[in-house]
Amino acid sequence: MSLKPLILIIEDEKPISKFIKVSLETQGYECIETQSGTNAISLVYSINPDIIILDLGLPDIDGTEVIKKIRDVTLSNIIVVSAREQEREKVNALDLGADDYLTKPFSVPELLARIRVALRHRSINNMDKNKAITKFEVKNLKIDFEKHEVIIDDNEIHLTPIEYKLMELLCKNAGKVLTHKFIIDKVWGGYLDTDTQSLRVFMANIRRKIEKNPAKPEYIKTEVGVGYKLIDE
Ligand code: CA
User: Fold this and answer.
1) Which of 65, 74, 153, 218 is 20 to 30 A from 96, comparing alpha carbons?
2) 174: helix, coil or strand?
3) How far is the CA of 36 from the centre of ligand 1 (A)?
4) How far apart are CA 159 and CA 152, in angstroms?
5) Residue 1 to residue 14: CA distance in whole angstroms
6) Domains of the chain (ranges plus CATH)?
7) 194 pLDDT above the threshold of 60
8) Distance, CA 17 to ligand 1 centroid (Å)?
9) Pairing mode, if any, of strands 77-82 and 100-103?
10) How many Å lie between the centroid of ligand 1 and the Cα of residue 181?
11) How far is the CA of 15 from the centre of ligand 1 (A)?
12) What integer is the mean pLDDT of 152-170?
């Protein structure tokens, strides 16, 4: 069962597409390229890739349209590639179910790091079907989802119920950028009415409890204008 991970690259700029393909193939991944969004949708159905690298600015249909069409039919991890001026589209893409994003221009190590995270998430998702994950650990942070216990440097941290829900959500999605909207929907059932300011206050409180230096967080990273991400390596 050591099939090469299959990566679908959806990118209309040939030099970028080529750059991604070459970088990934030297690492032992198998790649298929396409320049069109509509073609990409049928490819997803026919080849069922492990990972999809999706440029948001495509010539035929918008990248976000591609996500809408494929999100419900594939477990592929979707990494969105956007230009710097596409901030809004990027957040929208994450809300529609993209898993991560890269902003152009990006480096090979950056690309490879995202691919590794995506593949790890895929194997966790596959495991998940048989066995629920009960624990998560990164650096000196440990969380036990059954006992509702959060431990930092061997000390149990006291969190309020909402703070715990936030931590649980972040840890279960470690390595993945969660948008403000996604977090609010999951934790408050959309009830907070996209009030990112309140969310910020909750996150600041959690950081004070788990981070050595809350101004330079090592566990919960802020993705400016997008949301938050818990590190996973
Ligand atoms: Ca493009």
Assistant:
1) 218
2) coil
3) 10
4) 12
5) 32
6) 6-125 (3.40.50.2300), 135-230 (1.10.10.10)
7) no
8) 10
9) parallel
10) 26
11) 11
12) 95
Query: Ligand 1: distance of its center to the CA of 222 in Å?
Result: 27
Q: How far is the CA of 83 from the centre of ligand 1 (A)?
A: 8
- Encode burial over 181-218: b for 16+ CB neighbours within 10 A, e otherwise: bbbbebbbeeebeeebeebeebbebbbeebbeeeeebe
Q: Which residues surround ligand 1, an ion (CB under 5 A)?
A: 12, 55, 57
CA of residue 96 to ligand 1 center, whole Å: 19
Relative to beta strand 149-152, strand 155-156 is: antiparallel
Q: What is the pLDDT of residue 1?
A: 42
- What CA–CA distances, in Å, run from 41 to 92, 98, 100, 119? 19, 15, 19, 21
Q: What pTM, to 2 d.p., does this model score?
A: 0.77
